[in-house]
Amino acid sequence: MATLEYPHIERSGDGTLLLAGTMTKVVEVVMDRLAFHWDADEIQRQHPHLTLGQIHSALAYYYDHQAEVDAVIDSRIRKEDEILRELGESPLRARLRAARRAS
User: Which of 38, 42, 70, 85 is deepest in the core (most CB within 10 A)?
Assistant: First the structure.
């Protein structure tokens, strides 16, 4: 079986996949694609420091390793949900709810 290489992707010391020469995580490019349905050109417009080669490499990595990257995305979402639960409701949100009930 051939080994797949992604010249624009490097793994950091903690195992995070980054676009080479940047601090941009592969998962962030993938999430832009999935959440906003952006194509590579739009991702580049939103992140002008990235080349189309880097973006296409990140997306290719995702489609070749979808289960792995989806697990990272799920973990990030669970962690964010946990942090939000720990923080509780913001005072602003509580005031807005109270104002809505009062009107």
Answer: 38
> Residue 17: enclosing H or E segment and its boundaries?
strand 17-19
Cα–Cα dist 79/53, whole Å = 30
Q: Is the pLDDT of residue 4 over 80?
A: no
Residue 97: C-alpha distances to residues 70, 84, 87 (Å): 34, 18, 17
Give residue 42's identity as a one-letter amino acid code. Answer: E
Q: Is 88 left (phi over 0), alpha (psi -120 to 50) or beta?
A: left
Which residues have C-beta within 8 Å of that of residue 11, sequence separation ≥ 6?
17, 18
